[in-house]
Specification:
This is Prephenate dehydrogenase dimerization domain-containing protein. InterPro entries: 6-PGluconate_DH-like_C_sf, Epimerase_deHydtase, NAD(P)-bd_dom_sf, PDH_C, Preph/Arog_dehydrog, Prephen_DH. It holds the Pfam family Epimerase. The termini are far apart. It is built from 11 helices and 8 strands. It has a 5-stranded parallel β-sheet, with helices on one face. β4, α2 and β5 form a beta-alpha-beta unit. It has 2 domains: 157 residues, NAD(P)-binding Rossmann-like Domain (Rossmann fold), CATH 3.40.50.720; 124 residues. Helices cover 52% and strands 13% of the residues. The mean pLDDT is 94. The chain is of the alpha/beta class.
Length: 290
Amino acid sequence: MISDTVVVLGGAGLVGSLISRILMQYGYDVRVVDRRPSEHEGGFYEVDVTSPFSNTEHIFKGAVAVVFALPESVAIRAIPWVVGSVSSDVVFIPTCSVQDPFYRALKDTSSQQPFIGVNPMFSPKLSVQGRTVAICLEDGDSPSTFIEQHLMGAGMKIKRMTPVAHDELMALCQALPHAAILGFGLALAKSSLDLESAFEVMPPPMRTMMALLSRVLVNPPEVYWDIQLENDQASHQRAALAEGMERLMKNVRNQDYDEFRRDLQGVSKTLGSHLNSGAVDCQHVFSLLN
């Protein structure tokens, strides 16, 4: 059995609990650090990582890695405290939805500190089987890391990238669709129509959007706030979304069907070979909703 120790900051949260469970399955001594109580079976330390008390070095004794299962800004604030408590060969593993700011802050503080970013591309409440996890590394050609091996052993798929590439991709895959869903919700809230009547007649596209909106609203707001706020690339995607809406409004205002058709053809071309498979996916979703 492995006797190595891993400290999980924010281990009482959903992502922290997920990582802790997986590491414990492989025999690691997992120590959870959080400001709220945890059901963790191993060592637990009630600490606010933004203002840790003195003499906390014993928490990190024997640690081979520290997982930062924290919001981006909190994770970055915790870097100096952890760096001062561990050796330079301890691996730092942030699970942030934005990775490059943490990476740059870490290298400014401890340039030799090993870094492996981990971002599960799914809700920790779901089954992990077949789910994709983004792994951020300085060198994409480096040998497989221990955390990658354990995540794959638990049934997940791995996608490697640099921290910068990760943030650009997350702006497209997370910030953009979430912004569209939130915009839809804000427009819906301003409607003067009877929503109950809408529920009786709404077609599958509306039901799909309502399902996406509801999914967002039942989760903590800070999850989606961090995605929009912390990723510098997100502003470009929101601007592109606003520009697309303005273009649609312009075409309708000018009654320019030809331009509208050309715009849709351009989008279809962008999707390329994924167009038909996406249409099949949509039909499957609609059949489930019906």
